[in-house]
UniProtKB/TrEMBL annotation:
Cofactor(s) this protein requires: FAD
Principal place of residence: cytoplasm
Naturally occurring in which organism (per UniProt): Zonotrichia albicollis (White-throated sparrow)
Biological processes annotated in GO: D-amino acid catabolic process; L-aspartate catabolic process
Cross-referenced InterPro entries: D-amino_acid_oxidase_CS (IPR006181), DAO (IPR023209), FAD-dep_OxRdtase (IPR006076)
Localization annotation: Cytoplasm, Cytosol; Peroxisome matrix
Residue ranges the record marks as coiled coil: none
UniProt protein name: D-aspartate oxidase
Similarity-based family: Belongs to the DAMOX/DASOX family.
Limits of the FAD dependent oxidoreductase domain: 1-303
Enzyme Commission code(s) on record: 1.4.3.1
Assigned keywords, A-Z: Cytoplasm, FAD, Flavoprotein, Oxidoreductase, Peroxisome, Signal
Chain residues that bind FAD: T24, S25, V147, T164
Biological role stated in the UniProt entry: Selectively catalyzes the oxidative deamination of acidic amino acids. Suppresses the level of D-aspartate in the brain, an amino acid that can act as an agonist for glutamate receptors. Protects the organism from the toxicity of D-amino acids. May also function in the intestine.
Length: 322
């Protein structure tokens, strides 16, 4: 979508072996709370988050909000001991960030410190469908196809944009990319309206427009997409200990996703070369646990890299004509 906006003269085709609702992005809670990528400079992460927040805030404040599944949500991030950094880098981007009051902390007797703020949440499957609809409206073609090798695309396309998430492990042999398995529950509990996140990142309660997401797990290196019944009970118990009213939650659905994790998100231009033929590629993958939080920012950066590829192609074709 960003490419169609940045380079309106391009013809864009989306190839994917799975579409919504069968992607990692469909499993995500979709909360806008950044996760740190240790090898990406903080100012770049902050810019990605700022752009994503601004973009989604505008949607949440439009007539499209309910169809797009974007809404504001207020709540608490709580800690058993105060975090090293009292002010995270994103504290001035979310709304109304402040330390929790003693009265608020009384709700969480096991926790000693907390941050209250308002952020945005994407209800992921509706948001993905809304994006697909907007993309189709630009004339973009979408085909179900698994790509085994980027070179199979070079006859049909001038530039390849690789946003295959964990699929890049196999597709481009990126050994720096690894799965972090996450199991979550989606439940009916419409009375829960505040989010609660334990700062250890393991337990969270995220109310969406229709369902509440209860999490979670972080299992580094696990490729299993099968739900685990013991983990489901453990997640439910952990969430009930933070929000006892969840004992009355109904209609529990279990989902598993593999976070496409890496020390840094790979937003990068590369020119592949084989037997004198060149194939420009823009990578945009490795968003780990924070893909929703930074998706618009990384997509905008990738679209600029596509623009650069187009300029390079135009320059080399005019050189060839001379
Ligand atoms: C349990 C859980 C909770 C999460 N909660 C949050 C949250 O609250 N906030 C947040 O910001 N992030 C969250 N995330 C992280 C977020 O889900 C990911 O960062 C994001 O979904 C990654 O998106 P992606 O488009 O890169 O990957 P994907 O959604 O996996 O999409 C990749 C696409 O590429 C296709 N593909 C792959 N390989 C090929 C190939 N060879 N040929 C053709 N197509 C291919 C796939 O079919 C798929 O359609 C969560 C993740 C999990 C698992
Ligand atoms: O940690 C969170 O708050 C939710 C999330 O992004 C994840 O589970 O990956």
């Amino acid at each position: 979508l960003c490419i169609t906006e940045t380079c309106p003269s391009c013809s864009v085709t989306v190839l994917s072996d799975q579409f919504s609702p069968n992607t990692t992005s469909d499993v995500a809670a979709g909360m806008l709370i950044p996760h740190i990528y240790p090898d990406t400079p903080i100012h770049r992460q902050k810019q990605w988050f700022q752009e994503t927040f601004t973009y989604l805030f505008a949607i949440s404040n439009s007539a499209e909000a309910s169809e797009a599944g974007i809404h504001l949500v207020s709540g608490w991030q709580i800690f058993k001991s105060p975090p090293k950094e009292e002010l995270p880098f994103w504290s001035d981007i979310v709304l109304g960030f402040r330390p929790m009051s003693e009265a608020e902390l009384q709700k969480f007797p096991q926790h000693r410190f907390g941050q209250a703020f308002t952020t945005l949440k994407c209800d992921c499957p509706p948001y993905l469908l809304w994006l697909e609809k907007r993309l189709k409206a630009t004339g973009t073609q979408m085909y179900t196809r698994k790509v085994a090798d980027l070179w199979e695309l070079h006859r049909e396309y001038d530039i390849v944009v690789n946003c295959t998430g964990l699929g890049a492990h196999q597709l481009v042999g990126d050994k720096q990319l690894f799965p972090v398995r996450g199991q979550v529950l989606k439940v009916h509990a419409p009375w829960v309206t505040q989010f609660i996140r334990d700062g250890d990142g393991l337990t969270y309660i995220y109310p969406g427009i229709h369902r509440v997401t209860l999490g979670g797990t972080r299992e580094k290196g696990s490729w299993s997409l099968s739900p685990d019944a013991g983990t489901t009970r453990d997640i439910f118990d952990r969430c009930c200990s933070l929000e006892p009213s969840l004992q009355g939650a109904q209609d529990i659905e279990v989902k598993v996703g593999l976070r496409p994790s890496r020390q840094s998100v790979r937003v990068q231009r590369e020119v592949l070369s084989q037997g004198g033929i060149k194939l420009p590629v823009v990578h945009n993958y490795g968003h780990g646990a924070g893909g929703f939080s930074v998706h618009r920012g990384t997509a905008k950066e990738a679209a600029v890299l596509v623009e650069e590829c187009i300029s390079a192609l135009q320059a080399s074709s005019s050189r060839a004509k001379l």
